[in-house]
Design a protein that fits this description.
Keywords: Membrane, Transmembrane, Transmembrane helix. This is DUF2975 domain-containing protein. Pfam families: DUF2975. The protein has five helices and no strands. Helix 1 runs antiparallel to helix 3 and helix 4 packs antiparallel against helix 5. The longest helix is centred in the last third of the chain and has 41 residues. The protein has one domain.
Length: 160
Amino acid sequence: MKKSSTILLQVVIVLIGIGALVLLLWEPQIEGRNAHATPFEIYFKDPFLACAYIASIPFFVALYQAFTLLGYVGQNKVFSQAAVNTLRTIKYCAMSLVGFVVAGEACLFIVQRGKDDIAGGVFMGLLMIFFFGVIAIAATMFERLLQNAVDIKSENDLTV
């Protein structure tokens, strides 16, 4: 890959991270039920928001690892154990995000049972589960392929 392509993708990853961070900090203030709440009430008295912030940690870790992986691509170090470890971390982050979304969906069913229409929230959760599941599966496949390539490369280095 060209160096400019990897730099462009790294810039896109940084922009995604900045956008996600802005959304995490700005959206709770404009939410309908928080219209007249103080910042303390918004950010420290909402357990769902606390769970969303905790769940965002693996998301940002995965973004950082994707940024790092693109750095390895730009340096022609794709076939290294460090790249394999980066893909493994992305896989674990995606699986943990699936777990957080499943837990959020379970809480939605328990807390909102019969009180409100939750179809929109359930659908959004299912989309996120699908999205993060695809990422986890893709990272697993790339990790295996890359690990096989690294093993073959190390065997060839030993015979030379």
